[in-house]
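In response to reviewer comment 3 from the previous cycle, which asked for concrete evidence that the modeling workflow produces usable outputs, we include below a single protein chain processed end to end. The sequence was submitted unchanged, and the resulting structure tokens are shown without manual editing.
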Amino acid sequence: MKIERFEDIEGWQLARELCRSVYELAKNSPLGRDFSLKDQMVRSSGSIMDNIAEGFDGGTNREFIRFLQYSKRSCSELQSQLYRCLDQSYCSQDQFETIYNQTALTRNKIGAFINYLSKHLERRTATN
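The workflow returned the following structure tokens.
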């Protein structure tokens, strides 16, 4: 499949689903009353998809990889915040595991895409 728009990137699609899950948790759980943590989690989840979109228009693979790395870091940040959410009983163990696993899958997809782009960058650099 050819990627013509950032919406075609599987990592972005997964990040969008993840973001929806975080918003749903914030709306339907005690997390919604903890403005600070809710805001951090919503921002982290949005940052994952937004950095993919922003990096897509960066012009070079090297620039795109940098933004993908930011997205990957935001996944780890969200996972840490999920522990805080669980520890404060803002979510159930099942909710935690579902969103945590979604985040891990998203981070792994982004990491695989970074590896793909890095290899492509290496080949292109080696032939120039």
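The chain has a mean pLDDT of 93. We consider this sufficient to address the reviewer's concern, and the full set will be provided in the supplementary archive.
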